[in-house]
Amino acid sequence: MSNRVVQGRMVTPETLAELVEGESILEAESIEDADRECPECGGDVISVGYMPSVTEFVTGYKCQDCDWSADDRE
């Protein structure tokens, strides 16, 4: 598991997924670089794949420098 610094604090994949989702999740994969810039501040964006429920898999994106986050739901 790769931990990363997000907005000045160390987060685990599970914690990052919960920041993106806004509530607890079941399981999360490793954090990865998203190879994109934040649309709000231009900072680095990281991604994490996670399961918010038994039947759903989501990729979440979070800026390391500001509050911006998003996911790949349509």
UniProtKB/TrEMBL annotation:
Highest taxon, organism lineage: Archaea
Matches recorded under InterPro entries: DUF5795 (IPR043813)
Name listed for the protein in its UniProt record: DUF5795 family protein
Organism placement in taxonomy: Archaea, Methanobacteriati, Methanobacteriota, Stenosarchaea group, Halobacteria
